[in-house]
Design brief:
two-stranded antiparallel ribbon; elongated; 155 residues
Length: 155
């Protein structure tokens, strides 16, 4: 489309313009471009603990602010709010530790999945191979014992 510089308007499309420009079609604009995640998603138990910790911490901060404002106002509610703030600080600290412990437990139980050749996976494979070998040896020994039962000699 040609722009008329004197009037600031656009001229009608010419025959050389592309077909969708002639039809007046507008190209939709994307509001955002999706990019692949750079980090893996947190496991469900860890994410649940993290959400719980964030909620508890936010309530603790709100309670501390209310206690501070009650103290400035000289309200009788200041002392109980300060005591509650101390207790909720202990609970918030415990909830943050819970996130850390949950993450460690999940990693120990499920292995580290961030690297394709993780040591946990290799160790599980080695243990599985050792168990299969032990079962095969036990079956072989049981078969040998059964074959020789009841006879003292072949003669």
């Amino acid at each position: 489309m040609d722009t008329d510089k004197r009037r600031g308007t656009t001229a009608p499309p010419t025959a050389a313009a592309p077909p969708d420009a002639a039809a007046g079609a507008r190209i939709p604009r994307q509001l955002w471009v999706e990019e692949p995640a750079t980090r893996r998603r947190m496991p469900d138990p860890v994410r649940t603990a993290a959400v719980r910790a964030v909620l508890i911490m936010s309530l603790t901060i709100i309670q501390a602010l209310v206690a501070f404002l009650c103290t400035l106002a000289g309200s009788w509610l200041a002392f109980p709010m300060v005591l509650g703030g101390v207790a909720s600080t202990v609970v918030a600290t415990w909830s943050v530790l819970d996130v850390w412990v949950t993450r460690q437990v999940w990693n120990q139980r499920n292995g580290v999945v961030s690297v394709p050749s993780s040591t946990a996976r290799r160790m599980r494979r080695e243990r599985r191979i050792a168990r299969r070998g032990a079962r095969a040896r036990a079956r072989g020994e049981a078969r040998i014992r059964r074959r020789g039962e009841g006879r003292l000699s072949r003669a």
